[in-house]
Records
---
Amino acid sequence: AQSVTQLDSQVPVFEEAPVELRCNYSSSVSVYLFWYVQYPNQGLQLLLKYLSGSTLVKGINGFEAEFNKSQTSFHLRKPSVHISDTAEYFCAVKGSNYKLTFGKGTLLTVNP
Amino acid sequence: DADVTQTPRNRITKTGKRIMLECSQTKGHDRMYWYRQDPGLGLRLIYYSFDVKDINKGEISDGYSVSRQAQAKFSLSLESAIPNQTALYFCATSDSGLAGVYEQYFGPGTRLTVT
């Protein structure tokens, strides 16, 4: 069975600081990994995805993530965050029968 | 106009009442999903449908039922609402391509409170 662990439930940072949101996964099948973002009072939207190829994946809004097979991780990073990046971030892995398994989320709060 | 719409956006209902949440999409996707979101628990899949005649239970289907009225419409019903069904409910859609199926497009959510 597939599972996702997001290691931090909340991450507070100051504006223009770098940030890393951590995600570990387990999967017994080929690995497809995703980060979704949920802005306040909105649904989720896809930030980036890893399907195959380069282990460094670039997404929208300056975010990137690195797939590390040996450490079963897919951490999300941004070198300099903005107030508008305040949101909840969800890591997800492809599950059985074309479903996604989501982590419990990390709330990123960017303070001025 | 939004690609995935949900109605109502907010609903307060009483224990024991039947309630229906509706989802419509204009993306032309075959696959539709219903999730619930609870604080600290992430998203959990209630039901999913790969086409009009293919409906499947997710990990937490007890107490819920669904209807796929058309390719573009997927409704979630609570036959007899109970307080622990208070949550934020999301509808999502995806393409049927091998990789595209995992890129899900979410509606804005319905906040349901059962008193």
Note: The CA atoms of residues 47 and 57 of chain B lie 5 Å apart.
---
Amino acid sequence: AQSVTQLGSHVSVSEGALVLLRCNYSSSVPPYLFWYVQYPNQGLQLLLKYTTGATLVKGINGFEAEFKKSETSFHLTKPSAHMSDAAEYFCAVIREPFGNEKLTFGTGTRLTIIP
Amino acid sequence: DGGITQSPKYLFRKEGQNVTLSCEQNLNHDAMYWYRQDPGQGLRLIYYSQIVNDFQKGDIAEGYSVSREKKESFPLTVTSAQKNPTAFYLCASSTRRGLNNEQFFGPGTRLTVL
């Protein structure tokens, strides 16, 4: 069964520093992977997704993620953190890409930006 | 504007009472989902529906019920059988065309049992 593991429930970075949020997946089929962001007391918003094709995926707000099959990873990065990036981030994988759209979410990483 | 609406934003319930959370979408999506979010546990799937008049249990369906009488609407009832209902509830929808299956989320309803 497909699953995702997010390493680090809390990450703090200084404003202007590199943001790196880690996600590893387990999947018996080619995975379809997503990163979502959640601001306090709001729903989730899609940052980016990987389905097929280019392994480096660019998303909104300057974020990007690289699908590495050999490492079963899909880490989220941003070169320079901004105060507005403070939020909770969720990695997710589609459980069964064909005919079933259920997502499995990681437990989330709360990102704090230090001024 | 197209999107998903959930109401109310905050809901308080006494123990032993049933309560219904509303979810409406105007995105013309076939599939709809209900998730429960608890601190440190991510999102867990309660129920999902891939088409009108059909729905399936997710991972934590006990104590919950749903209906899907219209494509636009997927209400969730939290029954008195749910032992720990205090949580943040999120509704989502997606198109079933293609394999991208991006889910769009509503703003959520925070339920507190008093």
Note: The first strand of chain B starts at residue 4 and ends at 7.
